[in-house]
């Protein structure tokens, strides 16, 4: 099976989102969709259920970050939803990551821990967050914490995948947003890679939003990215 290109559905409006999805031929391999905070806050679980019932794979990107008990109880609820992936922030710490995994027990939902957001570069890490490590070391540190506490993988930029795999395991999933084909605007992303570079670096899946959802022809943009990614 091809490694997935996960489409980030960051739409303000559910009709706009469904119109976008209707551009994709029905017989095409089912899309892997990411529902993030923007759509989840407006449309909640019924929207997730609706897309699951249509046969899409779902990455529920809620980036949970709270005390262990709260995260565990939230994960117990999400474990009933049959989603394929869920995110928590690795900076919630070892107990919180382990609690999230415990909450998901018995489900097949993969737990992914967000390391350093791809919108943060070295300058923000040092000056704003006062983290005295370079990005590669910080991301590797958080990835090891996630690995040791039961996460199935991490979210990082593609640039850190080789060091994460070396520090954890080749089976530890590296799902990478911050993907920009050569012709795309970088926008608020700082640590970016093209689909082809992400593949060379060993990403297990790429997450792509605006280069597909804001394209004139979203389906064609998706097909082009898939071709570059699976070459
Ligand atoms: O957890 C994520 O998915 C995520 C983590 C991260 O470090 N960076 C990041 O961009 N994302 C998400 O990936 C998507 C990227 O969207 P685009 O920048 O439009 O391609 C957005 O939905 C972000 O919320």
From TrEMBL:
Pathway: Pyrimidine metabolism; UMP biosynthesis via de novo pathway; UMP from orotate: step 2/2. Residues 4-225 form the Orotidine 5'-phosphate decarboxylase domain. Its EC number is 4.1.1.23. Keywords: Decarboxylase, Lyase, Pyrimidine biosynthesis. Substrate binds at residues 10, 34, 61-70, 118, 180, 189, 209-210. It is an enzyme of class 4 (lyase). Signal peptide: none annotated. PROSITE patterns: OMPDECASE (PS00156). It comes from the Bacteria. Catalyzes the decarboxylation of orotidine 5'-monophosphate (OMP) to uridine 5'-monophosphate (UMP). This is Orotidine 5'-phosphate decarboxylase. It comes from Companilactobacillus huachuanensis. The gene is pyrF.
């Amino acid at each position: 099976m091809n490694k997935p290109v996960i489409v980030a559905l960051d739409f303000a409006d559910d009709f706009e989102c469904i119109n976008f999805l209707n551009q994709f031929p029905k017989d095409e391999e089912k899309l892997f969709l990411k529902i993030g905070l923007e759509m989840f806050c407006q449309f909640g679980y019924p929207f997730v259920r609706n897309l699951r019932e249509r046969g899409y794979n779902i990455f529920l990107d809620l980036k949970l970050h709270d005390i262990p008990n709260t995260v565990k109880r939230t994960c117990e609820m999400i474990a009933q939803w049959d989603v394929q992936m869920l995110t928590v922030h690795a900076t919630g710490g070892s107990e919180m990551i382990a609690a999230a995994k415990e909450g998901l027990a018995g489900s097949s939902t993969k737990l992914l821990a967000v390391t350093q957001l791809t919108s943060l570069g070295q300058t923000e890490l040092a000056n704003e967050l006062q983290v005295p490590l370079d990005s590669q070391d910080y991301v590797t540190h958080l990835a090891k914490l996630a690995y040791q506490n039961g996460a199935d993988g991490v979210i990082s930029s593609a640039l850190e995948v080789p060091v994460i795999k070396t520090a954890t395991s080749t089976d530890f999933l590296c799902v990478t947003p911050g993907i920009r084909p050569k012709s795309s605007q970088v926008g608020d992303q700082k640590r970016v890679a093209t689909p082809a570079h992400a593949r060379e670096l060993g990403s297990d899946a790429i997450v792509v939003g605006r280069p597909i959802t804001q394209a004139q022809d979203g389906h064609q943009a998706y097909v082009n990215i898939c071709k570059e990614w699976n070459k």
